Amino acid sequence: MNASETILVVEDDGSIREFVVSVLESEGYAVSEAGSARHGMVQAGALKPSLLILDLGLPDLDGLDFLRDFRAWSAAPVLVLSARTQESQKVAALDAGADDYLTKPFGVPELLARVRALLRRGPAATGEGSPLIEFGEVRIDCAGRRVEKGGELLHLSQIEYRLLLALAGNPGRVLTHRQLLTQVWGGKAAENNQYLRVYVGHLRQKIEADPAKPRHILTEIGVGYRFLP
């Protein structure tokens, strides 16, 4: 146990959140909490937690979307708490970036064992990512889910925003069509490259100085896309 290790609990059910926070604090952990995705992302950006405990059934954003947004800038381990018991739902959470999955209801010993296991991975697993990503005239505030260009707010659809985060969160790395489709749309869209071409085109129109000669979102022909900041 280490009081310097901050755990963020994002759970909309007040009684469950209070229970989890109480258990963790009794073990000496520093704990912060949020009851919504919006508040949770602000807390995550400010605290850069050592561990995120996340409920998937949030009132203002699906937990999987929250997880994808968080994973775009943070490598901190994530423990999902959820009443969703189907294997496909667990797989979806793990594919979106979760490190472990605990089904409700759960007991105190199991919760603490999972927490200890994830925190044992050490500082290298928590990453030093920033919730602010800047390139050219563009500034992405991951905590506030805002994108600005030249100081002006850019209006992006949810898909455009998630695609931009997926790309900008992996600078210099080639992301395949399948990787991007799975991360942004989910497994069912993994073979539909047309989705990707259309939305990459939309993003280029909004963030590139010259969309016909992009400097940031580059095409790797036949493979995918590479983001250069």
What features would you describe in this structure?
By secondary structure, the protein is an alpha/beta fold. The protein has two domains: 4-119, Response regulator (Rossmann fold, 3-Layer(aba) Sandwich); 155-225, Arc Repressor Mutant, subunit A (Orthogonal Bundle), CATH 1.10.10. It contains nine helices and twelve strands. It has helices at 14-26, 37-47, 63-71, 87-95, 108-119, 123-126, 158-168, 177-185, 193-207, and strands spanning 6-10, 30-34, 51-55, 78-82, 100-103, 132-135, 138-141, 146-149, 152-153, 174-176, 217-220, 224-227. Strands 2-1-3-4-5 form a five-stranded parallel sheet, with helices on both faces. Strands 6-7-8-9 form a four-stranded antiparallel sheet, covered by helices on one side. α7 (158-168) crosses α9. It is elongated and about 55 Å long. Residues 130-229 bind DNA.
Number of strands: 12
Q: How many discrete structural domains?
A: 2
Instruction: Spell out the CATH superfamily of the largest domain.
Output: Response regulator
* Overall 3D form: elongated
Order of helices and strands: EHEHEHEHEHHEEEEHEHHEE
Helix content: 40-55%
Residue-averaged pLDDT, rounded?
86
Keywords: DNA-binding, Phosphoprotein
Pfam family, one: Trans_reg_C
Protein name: Response regulator with CheY-like receiver domain and winged-helix DNA-binding domain
GO molecular function, one term: transcription cis-regulatory region binding
